[in-house]
């Protein structure tokens, strides 16, 4: 930075005799002061310039110069897909939709912003599969700030990982949660069965993205005890198990305080389930799964091996390697699941850097244009709401109650509309996200049709009504059961429990409505009453539910006249009283003579009266 100064013009030339020492000192006083001021200015100027260069507290930070961006990472049109909150089937559906949208937008990089506590296993595996098979291979996971459990799988599935300044990733062991009951304990057999697909996914990601395939096993299982070693000649680093350590160093491995996780408990190392794993043979299949925990059963190892198709690039250590490696760290004791902070992710090769905001992400990708975001849509939020088990239970109960009211007072249509809306809320969301198949809708609709046929056309046959009830029950349970591989019997158990509870609530509500139908607000308006006397004239099938009319509103065989068309339900007049009736066979036009052929407290079935019996009623 050029500096300016003023040239001094204050000195004067004097024609006086040669001055003495005092005069000389006085003569140099002015220049000395000027020199001292100049030295002071030179000493202070750098700090002043430095302070001026520093940004003020409210000013925007000065961007750092862009480093060289690798060609595989560089992007000019990046897109951010957010994955926030608990991961479920709706999340998987949404992420796949947004990946397709990013492709249509011409994106050349996708950043998955992760802030999740975990979620559904099947949904997580679907998201990982969508990322690995994406037509846009340049995928980056941005852990901002937490990627626990399912988030760890998604982060490792991406080509690269960046983190926020205070990020956390790990703790991805499978757990089982029952709705309304919390965590459920699992037997060792169940846990090993659930571990197989998770270990397969984790190891496959490690082999594809260059992570250590033994270290990543510590995210999903206990008992993964590892030491970090480095090859002296090449500087390559590996995480090795206790048998490998003994083979390389010929001694017991040291166990100071581990860098990751908790100190090892003695029972973990010497308990009854501890079986030292043999060192791998030099001729081992390169695609075989290499367990990092001695607690993994042989059948689990075989199952994971069968599911892996990418060979491992990890070297097979042999006794000939002794003396070529040196110990770096006692990494993890296996007493707890791996949980890594941002610095640890960087140290062990998971993270490629820190991104505090979108500007840092754009700098990381070498993008000059701002990042575009694809968030979850409002409709997907509604699908998630209606897919909740509690909400579906309420919808089932509301559907049954509304159907009962519609059948009890036909022609009103309000209750029927409510029932239709409840049915749409039950069937459509689960079908949209693939949580149930088309057969559930067919079963529910067929069950409703059979029940209506039993009530309106062939009353008393029982068989059609029972078959319809079974189809309805099975279809409603089916909305809780996933239609894809990986579904467990727990889905069926949960579905049966919730549907049975909804049926019980609906049954109790139907009984209460039937007993107090005429006194309930709004519902009492559906019953025709005598406006002059305020007395019920008997119209409406639910009026027959009262104790005084327990034997039916009319006698069997009574003659009357149809007031409205019976298609098949309508109104008829018997001895001056208006009653809701149902035609047993075919449609009957209004004004025709009819005869009651079946009478219950809840239903009056009629047929066209013979010509010799014109009926005693008169059309209103």
Structure write-up:
By secondary structure, the chain is α/β, with parallel strands linked by helices. Among the domains are: 220-337, no CATH class; 378-517; 536-608, Nucleic acid-binding proteins (OB fold (Dihydrolipoamide Acetyltransferase, E2P)), CATH 2.40.50.140. Helix content is 38%, strand content 15%. It is built from 16 helices and 17 strands. Strands 1, 2, 3, 4, 5, 11 and 12 form a seven-stranded mixed beta sheet that branches. It has a five-stranded mixed barrel with strand order 13-14-15-17-16. The protein has a three-stranded antiparallel beta sheet with strand order 9-8-10. A hairpin with a 5-residue loop joins strand 8 and strand 9. Helix 5 packs parallel to helix 8 (298-307), helix 12 runs parallel beside helix 16 (489-515) and helix 15 crosses helix 16 (489-515). The longest helix is centred in the first third of the chain and has 33 residues, at 21-53. It is elongated. The model is unreliable at 1-32, 34-66, 266-283, 528-550 and 616-620 (pLDDT under 50).
Proportion of residues in β-strands: 5-15%
Average pLDDT, to the nearest integer? Answer: 78
| Total strand segments | 17
Terminal CA distance: 106 Å
Low-confidence blocks of residues: 1-32, 34-66, 266-283, 528-550, 616-620
Oligomer state of the chains in this structure = single chain
Count of helical stretches? 16
Shape: elongated
The percent of residues in helical segments reads 25-40%
Q: Over all CA atoms, what is the radius of gyration?
A: 40 Å
> Could you say which structural class the secondary elements and strand pairing correspond to?
alpha/beta
The biggest beta sheet reads: 7 strands, mixed
